[in-house]
Request: fold
Amino acid sequence: MLEAALAKGPWILGEEFSAADVTIGSGLNFAVRQFKMVPSRPAFDAYLARCTARPAFQRAEKIAAG
Reply:
């Protein structure tokens, strides 16, 4: 279902980044990259690359790293 949603646009709701992307992107990042609970898929990898390229995501990672 998530893969189908990502096929419609670069973000969950289409062309614009939204709060849904903050929620889904962070959860998917944990599930795919950190805990390996969800198998990696090309659509997920591309979506996560877009999410992690955002300046706010990079700032949050620096804060979390201490």
